[in-house]
């Protein structure tokens, strides 16, 4: 699907953002790309979309170099940036007619369902839509495109609380086996219980690439009045502590599903690092 090999990237007159980056993204996965502001998330998304050219190495989609922007690649890729730009003089239905011709697998029925859920009508003029509504329109088109690679950069920015809930609802279970979705965000809670894998990017480096099912097998994510001895990472709060502990160190605590915010903070603090895919083991520094 997406393969990044020994990739370097930097902007002119700025420090190198990525050096020697390696990454492989599987089909049928929703992947959360997490990082602090300025960590390089949007840059990595644009490299995968073919909008930026690596200084060295390769970024490929099904053996197509993304920066070459071949039709075979563009027909199978949707990129929704954080700041959307749409032709405001068009009505929604006219914009859809133009857009759907780019994708041979476009599902107009699916789009109509999503527009209803997002409370957008075809006769609305795009200039009359709020920023959040324009974002929802782009999301609906992306999810209806039939593209195999879906790249959503900060998709929940600009969405109100009900719209975020609808976004999670429409994404849940919507991915086909031959599709890959990457969701870049620093709002970790917005994608919790949605993603299959998580990538933590920090200072242009991948600090963690993990399958959540494997993380759940390896660690306990829990809370108590006091964190147990041997906890890998602890965050104190008014009622006690949230903590991560290895399954082998845990006694009588099954915990719950991985807490992405707790995991993210642990990785940024250097308490957890490594890769946990293809039989590689997660390691503590």
Automatic annotation (TrEMBL):
Gene3D superfamilies: P-loop containing nucleotide triphosphate hydrolases (3.40.50.300). One of its GO terms (molecular function) is ATP binding. Keywords: ATP-binding, Nucleotide-binding, Transport. CDD domains: ABC_DR_subfamily_A. Residues 2-228 form the ABC transporter domain. SUPFAM superfamilies: P-loop containing nucleoside triphosphate hydrolases (SSF52540). It comes from the Bacteria. PANTHER family: ABC TRANSPORTER ATP-BINDING PROTEIN ALBC-RELATED. This is ABC transporter ATP-binding protein. It comes from Belliella filtrata. The lineage of its organism: Bacteria, Pseudomonadati, Bacteroidota, Cytophagia, Cytophagales.
